[in-house]
User: Fold these one by one.
Assistant:
Number 1:
Amino acid sequence: MARARLFASLCGLVFLVNLARIVFAPLLSVFIDEFAIGEATAGLIVTLAWVGSASLRLPTGWLLTKVPRHHVVLASGLILAVSSAFAATATTVPHLMAGAFLMGIASGVYFVSANPLLSELYPKRVGRAMGIHGTASQIAAVIAAPFVALTLYVDWRLSLWAIAVAAAGVTLYTWVAAKQTTLPTAGKNDRNLLAAARSQWRIIVTALAIIGAVSFVWQGVFNFYELYMQSKGLSRGMSATMLTIIFAAGVPAFYFGGDLADRLPHVPYMLGIVVSFVVSLLILTIVEHLAVLIIMTAVVGFIIHMLFPAVDTYLLDTLPDDARGSAYAVFSSIAMLTQALGSSVVGYFIEAGYTYDAVFGGAALLLGVIVLGLVVVERSGRLPGER
């Protein structure tokens, strides 16, 4: 029961740290109007939240070789509470960018410390634990758009103040739950970040090769999804609904995706998800009818969100105890920094005059070439797979 309470508190905290990253996407049009900025600058605000999420992941991995995982989790909650309050007071674009960056830092510190902790709390069902935890995270993404829409009746800053207050409360509960729990000691010998990265480099590189380009494209897709749907002729309200749909499809995807990750061979399973994402994104760029757009939005959302628990399960289930936290931090920092650039790149091409369909279609074709190469390598038996 003690571990269940701690797990529940972590689900509450991951809900908030993910909401803090996603909340800027439905606010893009508000920022464009209020601060008189273009799409590229608006995309940079979102990018900074994700760059912040990447920036301290590697130092956090080093910190985990010195400090218990749950202490770092608690620190991430405090960072989120303070940084959200700071962002809520923004009156200039640089202030807002700084706030977004700091909120991103909180999420990066959280995921690097919490995911290894979860895998050690439930070592026999890593995929299921990651799936449920990811589902809680994804619910935040689902409510982000309606949550922002509701706060706009008062002021957009209310959304950030709400995150700040909730983060303070959930962090306090997590501290109480951790004190009442006998915590795992599986990572007690994980004391050398560089040695862990060197010894497990093949697994790290394999995970990065599979998810790196995909997550880069996904960042650009979902952060501009409302504007993308508007470019296809949908109203502003319907476009916001489509953003909700693409995230709502991820709720069952995280749950079932994590469960399947426990049952299927890791690498073929991940590659199959990437192939499906490429095909579904290409179809999305060529359809126009509302009913088909709704269906493809749900399909794209379901497929891409199956990939995240699959990759985490592959790493956390395959890495040995004495390298798990450190090697995962190295992977996580590189992967997040790569995907953080997606929004800025998409914003740059859109502002340069390219259509959303052209940008996303070209990205899907490039992904297709990359995954084809990975399939060839996997079939030759040169990718590390099961533990």
Note: The CA atoms of residues 81 and 164 lie 4 Å apart.
Number 2:
Amino acid sequence: MGLGLGLVTVGLIAAGRGQVPISPAEVAGSVLHRIGVDLGPLPSAVQGENALWLVRFPRVVLAVVVGAALGCAGALMQGVFGNPLAEPGVIGVSSGAAVGAAAAIVSGITVAGVWTTAAAAFAGGVLTTFIVYAMSRASGRTEVVTLVLTGVAVNATAGALLGLLMFVTDDDGVRAIAFWQLGSLAQATWGAVAVAAPCAAAGLAVAWGQARKLDLLALGERPARHLGVGTERLRITAIVATALLTASAVAFTGIIAFVGLVVPHLIRMIAGPGHRVLIPASALAGAIVVVTGDLVARTAIDYQELPLGVLTAVVGGPAFFWLLRRTRARAGGWG
């Protein structure tokens, strides 16, 4: 409930900030009047209604979708791999999805209509996730060091492929790929929300449905099997859900790193490791982080916008170093 109220508060503040200032009360009044409730003041600024419904609300809603997807994907991957270092960006899933989306843009393929970019991102995310999963498994368990090193290799390969796509495409393609690498909500529209939201909702529903099995998997693979959990089926289901969640985020915003790493870990420290709480709480907290980060990115410097992916990396990078050191100390070393 606290995270839900926090998300509503942050959303009202974010929607009101910009070149046309609108108070949170006027933002709430505009929403209420739009749904037929004659309560609260309407925006007094010139073009305030247009600024809200054509520019800011699509951006805030897409930020909520992206943050929830990344937070949930991080919690799901950490539960499946059994360690707090797993995250779509760290192990290269986001980069793989971005390569798929960039390849669709450069090639001009439109076989799936408005869903083509999201479908290509989904395919790239699924392929990358299965590669990481296969290479990080040894003797029936997932090795943390191999997981991180595989992520380094995947990110390097994805970076090279993005560079190659930039080399063979035109100026528009170069700008689009640069957008993927930096990450931004600047191109948010209601159309993007209409495509991303169903993908994220489906991934969240699947993740929520696997919460009890993930709790049993945390006991160990053998005890989970004895308790009736099909561990390989669970992992495959979680991998597909993670790719769907990551694709819904990457397809329209580019790479936004470290949200899925830091948010679930902090929620786990506060609320415990139970996935019935961890998954929805990580989704809400991820939405708060992305909405807040986007607010800072577009208001920190007048008439300029910072790349959201760069901003989250500046904050998330040091947090990852701390988490890596903390995990190593708890494990007594990697050797």
Note: Residues 297 and 306 are 5 Å apart (CA to CA).
Number 3:
Amino acid sequence: MTAILERPVRARVPVAIPAMSRMVAVGTAVTGTSVSQPELLELLGIENPKVRSVYLNSAIANRSLTLPEPDADGVRRPEPQGDLLAKHKRLAVEMGGQALQNCLKNIGASLADLRHLCCVTSTGFLTPGLSALIIKDLGIDPHCSRSDIVGMGCNAGLNALNVVAGWSAAHPGELGVVLCAEACSAAYALDGTMRTAVVNSLFGDGAAALALVSDGPGVAAGSGPRILKFASFLITDAIDAMRYDWDSDLDRFSFFLDPQIPYVVGANAETVVDRLLAGTGLRRSDIAHWLVHSGGKKVIDAVVVNLGLSRHDVRHTVGVLRDHGNVSSGSFLFSYERLVRRASPRPGTTES
């Protein structure tokens, strides 16, 4: 004897479509004085031919910097650590606030529309964080949620984007902003060494803000590229290659950049890009727009060679390096702003 058993029919539950965060606006700001590399060499009184060549062969034309005023002898002396921290606080709040307002203005939004602010900085230490200082300075609603990412270096902007994209996906239709504010001249040492020259010839001051809004059930975020995926790769063998730590000889914090960084970055570029594209159905040749960190001429060249890109592919990155230098965590957003203004991405294209 057989029997046919009928399972109870469960009510069909609608499957929720994951929210997709969109980049809806970008804005940047700089402060201080725009100086060329030859002008900076004269301002700092650098005469060593080897050191001068580092500045003059950097592919950087101009940078925005806030340098110490010359003393009675016309010499710009190193600033005490306390003065540098105060400079960082002042510049980060000033530039950050301006970049945030420039960003919101581009979509007709106001500070009252902001629901989450994630601030990034690697050129100074602040408690309370930069987010709290900017909220107070601009009179933003104190109920605005916030987060701060400190000390992650030049890649911190992408880490912040990951954080805010996740927040945005969980809050469809609400406005979140990534804000990178890097007062690099508040981390300068002035000692004439080659180690210092590598840093001082490269970094500039700048802030960049990116607004995100997520699609969701019954909510349309509007226009703007959707964020599909993130990928991360920490090169643990080179973890000491980029440092900002205490220098007992200078009695202050100091940057260190290993000369091998461009080659290490280039050699590992394929690993993270291939992981990023895995499962998306996309190939490198499908990417219409590339935004690479403007870490320096050799860094850009190494990425171009290892990923098989053209100089045209990285034109926005090269332009940012030329006009602003390396502005640390906000560099890729400066490049994205140029992409939006000069070659707005068409629907259906992909950028990386």
Note: The longest helix spans residues 81-105.
